[in-house]
Every structure is written in structure tokens, then in C-alpha cells.
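Thought: the user wants the 3D structure for the chain below. I'll pass the sequence to the structure tool as-is, report back what it returns, then summarize two notable features.
Action: structure_tool
Action Input:
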Amino acid sequence: MVPAMAATADTSQNRNYYDAFSAGYDHGRDRGYHKLIDDQAAAIVSRYAAGKDALEVGCGTGLILQRVATVARSAKGVDLSPGMLEHARSRGLDVQEGSATDLPFPDASFDVTYSFKVLAHVPGWERCLQEMARVTRPGGHIIFDIYNRNSLRYLIKRLWGPRKTSRSYDEAAISTRFLSPAEAASVLPPDTRVVARAGIRITTPHPVVCRLPVIGKVHDRVEWALMESPLAALAGFYVFVAEKL
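Observation:
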């Protein structure tokens, strides 16, 4: 358990970090590397969310939620950052402020609950999984990613260090957790079972590769082809799909 005062301080720091990040967060994310990984995340979720009620935990500016909303019966988002939510609302999305560790929804409210690039930054992230399972209906799915320690991305982060995300912060300003897939699987809520796995960012040495003429297109096709191959175990973002029992 995370002590209450420490959890409050971490939440406040994360909120401030993402509020600052929100000003430029969407810049360049409509193309190249960021579009690729958001398209892949949305494609995984859409298989399970088509015609269903979906919730994105940590929806940010709504880049993935906007894609999922085109296929879901209903699509809602929750995020702790008012700055991020302002951008999501400008997209016409149904979002509200709230904590991933205390979701503001009744039990069994959604068919699909998902989160990408979020849980790695939440202290006591096991509580997030429990909350996602709580608000998911029996037979529904919980989809989330981890920052994979067994990946090229992890090695690059270790070598090059944190990047700047706003005028006030860089990536070191918030906690970041890298896990192995086995470590993540060991803390899944007991009323769930893993039914699928996938990998995002398997071969990418640097985002700039996606913008290179010819090479970028080939690279994207390779990433899509490998997403559900055995090499997914080496992905920078390792994705779990768990069924709520």
C-alpha cells in the first residue's frame, strides 16, 4: 500500500506534469511514430469494444479515445489532468476528471476498460487494475500496457535519459516503472484471466525512423506484422487483454 500522504503528493505532481505537457502534447501526433502506436492501440481495443460500452483510463487529450468512439456504442474517458481533458473535450469526447486508483463509476459499468502509457506512471498501479476490473462487466475485457523492461525501448531510455516534455518538466519529473511481462501478469486481479497479448514498438530504434521516406513505410508494415508474433515479448509497450470472469 502507498501511504496516503505520499499518494496525494504523487497525484498532485502527476497532475502538474500532465497539465504542463498538455500544451504541446498533440503536436506531431497525427503522423509518424505517435500515430502508428496510437493506431495500433486503438486497433487492439476496437476488436473488443465494437458495439460495446468502453472506458479509457488516463485518456489524455483523447487521441486513442477518439478512434475507439467511432466503433463503440459508448466511449468515455477519465484523466487526472484538467489540461489534458480540455483538449479531449474540444474533440467532442465524453470525459471527466478522476483518479485511476479510484474510478468515479459504479461496479460493472463497462464492457471494455483500457489504458495505454498510463499505468507505468501510477504508484500502486495494482490498485488501478483492481479498479478497472471492478467497473468492467463479467465477460468484458480489461486491456492495458506495461513499459517492458525486456525491450529495445528500455535500453534506449537507459542510454539517452529523460526527454523534455514541456518548459517546466522532463520525463524524470514523474515516476516510471518498467516491468517484465511475467512480473505484470503476477499482479492481475484474481477475477481475471489473460486471453490475448500483443506488442507495440518492437523494432523501432528511434521515432525518427517512421518519418524517413520509403524506410518509414516499410518499418510501419513490419511493426503491424509483428504485433501479435512471438517477438511481441520484446515490445517497448507490452499489451495484456484480460477477461473479467
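Final Answer: Structure generated. The helical segments are 4-22, 32-49, 63-68, 82-90, 125-134, 152-160, 181-185, 215-226. The longest helix spans residues 4-22.
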